[in-house]
Amino acid sequence: MTQPQTAPYGSWESPISADLISTEGHRIVEAVADGEDIYWIEMRPAESGRYVIVRRAPDGQTTDVTPAPFNARTRVHEYGGAACVVSDGTIYFSNFADQRLYRQPPEAEPQPITPETALRYAAGIVDAKRKRLICVREDHTDAGREAVNALVGIGLDGTDGGQVLVSGNDFYASPCLSPDGTRLAWMTWNHPNMPWDGTELWVGEISTDGSLGRTECVAGGIDESIFQPEWSPDGTLYFVSDRTNWWNLYRYHAGTVEPLCEMEAEFGRPQWIFGMSTYRFVSADQIICTYTQDGAWHLASLDTVTRRFDRIETPYTSIANLQAIPGGVLFSAGSPTESASIVQLDLATRQFEVLCRSSEIEIDAGYFSTPQAIEFPTKDGLSAHAFFYPPQNRDYTAPAADLPPLLVISHGGPTSATSTALDLEIQFWTSRGIAVLDVNYGGSSGYGRAYRQRLNRQWGVVDVDDCVNGARYLVEQGYVDGDRLAIRGGSAGGYTTLSALTFRDVFKAGASYYGVSDLEALTKETHKFESRYLDSLIGPYPEQRDRYRAYSPIHFTDRLSCPLILFQGLEDKVVPPNQAELMVDALRTKGLPVAYVPFEGEQHGFRRSENIQRALEAELYFYAQVFGFVPADTVEPVIIENLS
Q1: Is the model more confident about 413 or about 69?
Q2: 3.30.70.260, 3.40.50.2000, 3.40.50.1820, 3.40.190.150: which CATH number matches 363-627?
């Protein structure tokens, strides 16, 4: 084996190219089981971000089910999720272009079962007894008012245009039928709450005509978040609640709520999308579940009679979207050396089988940086969490006296979390000699309700402080170069990025992907799901309009003093393009180095391979110009205005 060559940080040659990341992989969105067949949805950048339903037969053969140009993606809540359901080989799915529901029997073409109107559907379940789908419907037919959400029943053959089962509240989610088909459970909540703030769990009796008779709220409230209601095979209702600070498992039995397994661990996730699941019944008295502690996800078995809890050892640190299958469970998983995959666990043998990988790229582990979980001091005597990725490339070492640049990542949400599953975009940076700090700032999920609520009325403060203090911590430990600190983030992470560059003077450069610069404009223009989100993060609007202005980077561009690159999808409905364009104009006027890279046809998050590649390469070029290193990659330059 040849000895590593010495070269400056940032200039290392890496096999993890932007082209490889953007074209050779796909994102696995969700998986469902139907008998012995397994289905999942792949988001394919090489097909302009089309969402394709794939079927895996018992013999292991995989087949694309949805023909082009069908795109199995729903826009309910804009973020979507749970876009398809399968029953006896027939698939029902939402098509992105027209948002109609389609029915696709085996070996047949999709046929619409809903009319051409401004209606959207998600989270469908099959009510076989009444030959209908029960799903969430979002009504956009009246452009002059806020969208109207409801639970509806729709005939499987399309002859029934839709029977409203429940309406009147702002949001509905997670409809689920009892095993005997006589009861329906669902979640609901109202503005200004988000589903991780406070939701209610309701149960209704289904009448002979399919409508709901007597209904009752069995758990939840404005200060309790319910997650994933699920009926056991014997007809008992289970759910996850954070009533004790942690999202733990409970059941509703004989009119009372009983805890099953009280732990300082999270069995729930923030419900940004539909269809999330962290537990499933494999028998009447056995649950297979996943939970997170200290940023890592684990798998376990829970006996619902004895309440015995047994951890199942796995090679994975990220586990999601559990589904029960004959003899085992199915889930999405990843690890620091394994990209996101669909994995099957045989419960009898405890053997894991990878059914599908989001990427079949084979890269030597010598190019992968291993994440290190760190807890560092932050403001007000508290601590925050992050994963540190030091530079790693088997072919290179840096000059002895050098320290690497640091790229701090502020994740989106902001009520979300980062994990240690293999992320080739992170490895793109570390394999070139740039350290990465992926921060789970206060407000992130996975560390209890109190940690999530640190961001209440402190967005743009707590998250920024934690990113700043994480960077300072690494500088003080002697791990990174304090003169070459950058920060990047998308969506809410873009807001954290812009706020850190505006209201602090620690970072020397930044990259904002469809980030928020004007909170007042955001609360006026964004979609229904998030239209009152800022009530908790900032304060009620317009009563506290002064806070919205005080926390908006666009009003304080005079405080900016470092270069910035911005990326924006021009069809973004979550953070409209003018958020980026106003920031660019201000930086241009001030004479600061600024680059702007807009993309036609992209929404909130880039899905086209050519745009993913262009953004990564442009960001690398930008840092090289700002920090003075010469990348090994040959990339198309990006115009940086005001750069001397």
Answers
A1: 69
A2: 3.40.50.1820
